[in-house]
Amino acid sequence: MTILDENYTLADGTLIPRLGLGTWLMDDATATAAVKSAVACGYRMIDTAQAYGNEAGVGEGIRTCGVARDQLFVATKVAGELKDYQSVAASIDESLSKLGLDYVDQMILHSPQPWVEVNQSDDRHEEGNLAAWRALEDAQAAGKVRVIGVSNFLAGDIDNILAGGTVKPQVNQVLTHISNTPFELLDYCAEKGILVEAYSPIAHGEVLGNPLIAEVAGRYGVTPAQLCIRYCLELGMLPLPKATSAEHIADDARVDFQISTEDMQTLRGAERIKDYGESSFWPVFGGKL
What we know:
single chain, eight-stranded parallel beta sheet, alpha/beta, two-stranded antiparallel sheet, 38% helix, 289 residues
């Protein structure tokens, strides 16, 4: 048994792999190759999004990887700009068409705010998010989606969904890594029975040169990237590392070790990351579009 053979059980009873492949910033051809490499080495969860522009490539990889569809967990996201029922419903059908699939295992709202408003607006779009959520609920009822959830949602955003929706979000996918871990949000989600999925668990590569991370990784004989992924697992999250080469994809799954309580405490207290390098202009990394 390795991490790739293990699952979490969501609040609604659905099994979801404990580790998945992220595909942000991959073009279609790269995504197809990455998906096939990941599945070949044992990954069963693949994560994409409407905003990534590579659903067609991910779908090609899913359909041609040689593993039965029902053995895979395919996840995508509704574009953050869509805040009304009709456009979200249409986008769900468009995603299925691009993926070339009859259903997806998980579909989530990508952001409570349109990306151009993130870090620039206090408007949390409560009504628009509820309209979008109703479209997800109906897609789930129609068998187009198995699991529905959210991404980049804060506690207040989720409270809005819980108060106005009929189906509880099963997951919240957020930026989480050593040196930037939203502990209060993690506690909130745990209290509500919502699994946190960690995107950019190695901070888009910007923490790989961190001396503290390198020192702790050395004690376990693992790479800084492997330590970062294991850190998220130790906190009960589902990490979604992005990798394109077969070697890196395989390395990211070699995380069957335990971080000591003392080292976890050290990592939890790591100094907050100051800069995300070339990715700093993206809203999720503190920038503005």
